[in-house]
Amino acid sequence: MTSVDTSWTDDSLRALDDRLVARIGEITAGELTQRRTQLARISPETAELADWLLDYLEGGKLLRPRFCFWGGVAALDREPTDAEVDALARYGVAIELVQAAALMHDDVIDHSPVRRGRPALHVRAASRHRDGALSGDAEGFGVAVAIVLGDLALSWAEQVAATVEGAPDALEAARAEFEALRTEVMSGQFLDVLHQAGGFGSAPDEEQAALSVIRWKTVPYTVLRPVRLGAALLGADAAALQTLSTWAIEVGTAFQLRDDLLSVVGDEDETGKPIGGDIVEGKRTVMLARARADADAEGTALLEDVVGRADAAREEIDRVHALLVSTGAVSSVAQDVREHAARGRVLLAQASTLSPRGRAGLAALAERATDVASLPA
C-alpha cells in the first residue's frame, strides 16, 4: 500500500498515521491471501484475480481510509488503542475495496485508458488477451474482466467490513454509514452518466446538475461517509457527527472541483491521468458549464465540436483548455475550491466537540486534498 504525504508537522500525528497505514497493509495482504487460497480451489486462473486486485491497490493514496481513521480519532479524547486502530483500519480496507470497484467500473464507463499512471484494468486485461492469442474480442474481454473483478472487490468489501469488532451500538451506527456510502456513490455514478447524456432534467441548470453529481458521487464516499463512519465506530454523538458532516461537504466539494482543475492545469506525472481526459470523455463539469455560459459563438461551436470526441486532436484539446481559461471558468473554479476549503478550516477550528488530535489530522488531510496554491490556476 502507498501512503500519501500530508506534510505532518507533528511527529505524534505522523506516528499515528503510520500505525494506520501499516495495519491497512497487513490486513489487505492477509485478506487477499485468504481469498486467493479460496479461489485456487476453483482453478489456478481464478486465483490470479486476487493477484490482480492486490496489484491494482498498489499506489493508492489511502485518502478515504485515512479520513475514516482521523474521524474516529476526532471522537476520542485519547490516543486510540490497538483494537480501535484495527477496527478503523479494517473499515479502511473495506472502503478501499469499494473505491477499487468504483474506479474499475468508472474507467470502463468513461473509456479511460489510464489510472494511477498505468494502463486501466480493462486495458491491461485486453493486452493480456492479445498477448495470449486468446479467441474473441480483446477489448470486450478487458471490459468483462474489469466488471467481474470490480464486482468481486465489492463482495469482498462487505466481507471485510463484517470482521470489524466493537460495541454493538457503535457497530450498528458504523454499518449504516457504510451502507449509505455504497448506495450514494452508485447513485452519484448514475447521475454522472445521466448528466453526461443530457438526461438530468430535474436539475435547474447545467452547473447545478454538475454540483449534484459532486454531492452524491464524490462527497459521500470520499469524505462524508468515511469520516462519519470512523467517528460513529468510536462512539461520536449526534452533534459531533453533524459537525463532521457540514465540514465534509465543504472539503469533499473542494476536492472534486480541484480534481476537475487537474484535468486542465495538472501535471500528468502527479495525477496519473492524461491531461484533457475530461474533454475527450465529455465530462459535464462545473468548469465546462461556466465556459459554455460565457463563451461567444465561436467558443460555443468549439465546445460542441470537441468535447466528448474520443478522436479529438491534441491541438483541439489545447484550444478547449485555452477557452476554459479565457472565459474565466478555470479561475472561478479555483476560487470556489479556496472558498470551500476556507469554510472547512473555520468549521474545524470551531469544532469544540472534536478532539484536538483528530482535528489536526483531518486538517492535514483536507489541506492536501484541496490545495490549489501549487497549480497554475
From TrEMBL:
Pfam families: polyprenyl_synt. GO terms for molecular function: metal ion binding; prenyltransferase activity. GO terms for biological process: isoprenoid biosynthetic process. InterPro entries: Isoprenoid_synthase_dom_sf, Polyprenyl_synt, Polyprenyl_synt_CS. Its cofactor is Mg(2+). Keywords: Magnesium, Metal-binding, Transferase. It comes from the Bacteria. SUPFAM superfamilies: Terpenoid synthases. Belongs to the FPP/GGPP synthase family. This is Polyprenyl synthetase family protein. It comes from Brachybacterium saurashtrense.
